[in-house]
Amino acid sequence: MKENKEVSRRDFMKLAISAIGGVIGMAYAIPAIGYIVGPALKKDQGQGWIRLGSTGKVETSIPTLFKVKIQRQTGWITTEEEVSVYVLTENVRDYIAMSNVCTHLGCRIRWITEQNKFFCPCHNGIFDKEGNVVSGPPPRPLDRYKVKVENDQLFILGG
Amino acid sequence: MGIKLADWLDERVGWREVWRAIFLRNIPKVNWFYTLGSATLFLALNQAITGILLTVYYVPTPDHAYDSVQYITTQVTAGWLIRGLHHWGASAMVVVVVLHMLRVIFYGAYKFPREVTWMTGVVLLLVVIGFGFTGYLLPWDQKAFWATTVGTRIVGTPPIIGDYLLRILRGGTDLSAVTLARFYGAHIWALPATLALLIGVHLYLVIKIGISAVPKKGE
Predict the structure, then answer these.
(1) Whole-model pTM?
(2) Sequence-distant (≥ 6) Cβ neighbours of residue A116 within 8 angstroms
(3) Which of B147, B130, B47 is nearest to B90 (CA)?
(4) In this complex, do B56 and A31 lie within 8 Å of one another by their Cβ atoms?
(5) Bridge partner list, A158
(6) What distance in Å separates the CA atoms of residue B192 and residue B185, rounded to the nearest whole number?
(7) Are A110 and A121 in contact (CB under 8 A)?
(8) Residue B124: CB partners within 8 Å, gap ≥ 6?
(9) Residue A87, phi then psi, degrees to nearest 5
(10) Which residues of B touch A39 (CB under 8 A)?
């Protein structure tokens, strides 16, 4: 401190204490932020290919509901979840698999054969059999899964 | 700008007076043993911060306690650090609190006019031990379970009422979900509230009366 005589002992201590306090504060704050945000940044591992069932169950031109149970790891708990998928085929060769989750606010949609439409019970979202929005608030068509067929078994790629 | 804001606030709430009373008060020439109280306060803050963070993931039921602790330690970012700080901080707390008490005894600092400071300190020591005892059960591993089984037995020793006391402490005849839940409740609500209140009184008295000087020979 020789070159700068204006720094008093008291000022130096003030500065030193603030600096040390700041370092200690950061040593708590940085891990704390990581600790709280951490699980949200973890990527979902994905489910890989999920077997829905036999292609024979799919009625031509009518979306057919498949329900499969999947295991999902959330925190320290492994939960069993049911995934519902509507599968549609027009030519018994090409299949499309649609999520039953409404693209508006996430309610579960239902296929009504008499009306030839999907209906969402929450806010009257209506989709046609290929999942395109017919009317109501949904912002985009129903989400689709990648599909593959092996030995007459339908598989979807789970997210 | 900062100074202006500080002045504005001081004019309205008078914080500078409080600041002076706490940080710029006069103290006698003392030694390093006099820092043990501050060290305890720092550790208590550490326990509070890390303890609050642990409650973000910890779940106090027999189904989830052990798994959630493992999850914190092995999966969560810096979870090992937060839990480690809480675990080792707890041990350090007991050690430093006892050293602090010994200093007060050896320097005779408990005497007039500081008796009330001493008495709140004694209760604070008991609260810290309560923290240690209840916190030890929470990981719900073998060590926690059996240590608490043995530890709670102590209240069962008085004649006639012993059995009732033991049942009340455990919330039943044996250690169970009820025991875990009530130990957790005590650990994160009842004890911290008591601790905060008593620290408030303790520190108020330390500041109000001032700390004792190192006794001179023949005193």
Answers:
(1) 0.86
(2) A128, A129
(3) B47
(4) no
(5) A48
(6) 10
(7) yes
(8) B97, B195, B198, B199, B202
(9) -115, 135
(10) 75-77
Strands of the sheet containing A133-135, edge to edge, are: A110-112, A117-119, A126-127, A133-135
Give the whole-angstrom CA distance, residue A61 versus residue A87: 10
List C-alpha distances in Å: B199 to A10, B94, B139. Answer: 28, 15, 27
**Sheet containing A95-99, strands listed edge to edge, beginning at the edge strand earlier in sequence:** A64-74, A77-89, A95-99, A144-145
Predicted pLDDT of residue A2: 53
Pairing of strands A147-150, A77-89: unpaired
Q: Residue A150 corresponds to which amino acid?
A: E
Question: Which residue type, as a one-letter code, is found at position B142?
Answer: Q
At A128 the three-state DSSP class reads coil
- What letter would DSSP give residue B190? I
B98: tokens are 């006892």
The residue type found at A52 is: L
Cα-based distances in Å from B140 to A118, B63, B192 = 49, 10, 21
What is the ipTM, given to two decimal places? 0.89
Enumerate the residues of chain B whose CB falls inside 8 A of the CB of residue A75: 57, 68, 71, 75
Torsion of CA B29, B33, B37, B40, to 10 degrees: 150
Q: What does the alpha-carbon distance between residue B57 and residue B67 come to, in Å, rounded to a whole number?
A: 10
Tokens representing B106?
Answer: 């050896």
pLDDT in tens, B78-123: 999 999 999 999 999 999 999 999 999 999 999 999 999 999 999 9
Per-residue pLDDT of chain A (159 residues; tens, 9 = 90+): 456 668 899 999 999 999 999 999 999 999 999 999 999 888 777 778 999 999 888 888 899 999 999 888 888 998 888 989 999 999 888 899 999 999 999 999 999 999 999 999 999 999 999 999 999 999 999 999 999 999 989 999 876
pLDDT digits (tens, 9 = 90+) for B152-176: 999 999 999 999 999 999 999 999 9
What secondary structure letter does DSSP report for B33? G
| 3-class SS of residue A151 | coil
Q: Are A32 and B82 in contact (CB under 8 A)?
A: yes
Contact between chains at B64 and A77 (C-beta distance less than 8 A)? yes
Residue from the list A36, A39, A76 with its beta carbon closest to the beta carbon of B68: A76
